[in-house]
Design goal:
238 residues; alpha/beta
């Protein structure tokens, strides 16, 4: 049995909503074991994060606001992450924040060969989003009782919006072209992997749980199943 990747979850409680924790943990479960879980904030004050610390085994890290107007939490998180980088066997760093101050940190981690998954609101500056390998909008996480596509659930990009995203369209075309067989068909699983390497955004940011579901919603590429009953995509012939 192959060992799972080790994940360090680092939460900036000053710039993240506690309501997103269920979605964050569910997303991270796809990548390995979240062995380190830390939440940084001033725990002497009231915080919604206090109610989720014990249920999710998250370690609170006290950070006092030493100087008014200065975010001491950011610096404390950065120091701890750099310490983990050189002293802990961590494969994936998950940074929960909507603060662009973590952009240099994300770039440094990637330069050291680590995967960086960012979680933040849609207002997160693009610099931090693109510094991560993958960025997931926490606005998209809803109560577990809500089902994808149901009333009041995630707002989805429609066909026109998806097709209008040139970067997204080009990434999908390239992924199909790079993995297609002699008949032009490409495995959906392989296409998903290749698209993920080009697009920082998670498909959830567009309102879809997976890349195949998003590509299907585009209504632009041909779809079928191969002899092994695996879903495949192909660029439509003119």
């Amino acid at each position: 049995m192959e060992s799972e990747d080790k994940i360090a979850l680092i939460i900036d409680c000053d710039n993240a909503s506690a309501e997103a924790i269920d979605g964050i943990m569910e997303e991270l479960s796809k990548y390995g074991e979240t062995s380190i879980r830390r939440a940084y904030g001033n725990w002497e004050t009231s915080s919604p994060w206090k109610t989720v610390l014990h249920p999710f085994a998250i370690q609170p890290v006290q950070q006092f606001p030493y100087t008014k107007g200065k975010n001491a939490t950011d610096l404390a998180m950065t120091i701890d992450v750099m310490d983990m980088l050189y002293t802990e066997n961590i494969d994936v760093f998950a940074i929960v924040s909507s603060d662009s101050d973590f952009t240099p940190l994300a770039m440094k981690l990637r330069a050291k060969g680590k995967m960086v998954i960012g979680f933040g609101e849609e207002k997160t500056p693009s610099a931090f989003i693109y510094a991560c390998n993958l960025f997931v909008f926490t606005d998209k996480f809803k109560d577990s009782a809500e089902q994808e596509g149901s009333s009041g659930a995630v707002t989805r990009y429609d066909k026109g919006m998806l097709r209008g995203d040139t970067r997204l369209m080009n990434a999908i075309r390239k992924a199909i072209q790079e993995s297609q067989d002699d008949n032009g068909w490409a495995l959906a699983a392989t296409v998903s992997q290749l698209v993920s390497r080009q697009i920082t955004h998670s498909p959830k940011n567009f309102g879809y749980s997976t890349w195949p579901k998003l590509i299907h919603a585009m209504g632009y590429f041909e779809e079928s199943k191969n002899s092994k009953d695996q879903p495949v995509f192909r660029i439509k012939k003119k």
